[in-house]
Specification:
This protein is mostly beta strands. Strands 2, 4, 5, 6, 9, 10 and 11 form a seven-stranded mixed beta sheet that branches. A four-stranded antiparallel beta sheet has the order 1-3-8-7, with no helix packed on it. The chain starts with a strand and ends with a strand.
Length: 124
């Protein structure tokens, strides 16, 4: 059974950086498409970034392009999200997710397996 565990969240000042990591078990990260999503209080869960099984097809939400980078570490079986130039509006719970199906990779309902989330808070 696929399991995902996020880590690396915390409190950071605007302009700072955080690196989130998602450890996968029960499957290898190179065989699933992996995504990062976030959900702020009172808002719907939204797409942040995704990486397909090829490792070369990568997608980003417009609001994180140039600031966030998704990467995959096959040796550690993790998918990471490097977040730079953080803004207060990036404050949310960040989730990683995995899917073995093809799709748009940006819709939460396309992902079957989810982590528990990690809180990211950016102060102004």
């Amino acid at each position: 059974q696929a399991q995902l565990v996020e880590s690396g969240g915390g409190l950071v000042q605007a302009g700072g950086s955080l690196r989130l990591s998602c450890a996968a078990s029960g499957f290898t990260v190179s065989t699933y498409a992996l995504g990062w999503f976030r959900q702020a209080p009172g808002k719907e869960r939204e797409f942040v970034a995704a990486i397909r099984t090829s490792g070369t097809m990568i997608y980003y939400a417009d609001f994180v392009k140039g600031r966030f980078t998704i990467s995959r570490d096959k040796a550690k079986n993790t998918v990471d999200l490097q977040m730079n130039s953080l803004k207060p509006e990036d404050t949310a719970v960040y989730y990683c997710a995995a899917t073995s199906n093809r799709g748009t990779y940006v819709r939460p309902n396309e992902y079957a397996d989810w982590g528990q989330g990690t809180q990211v808070t950016v102060s102004s």
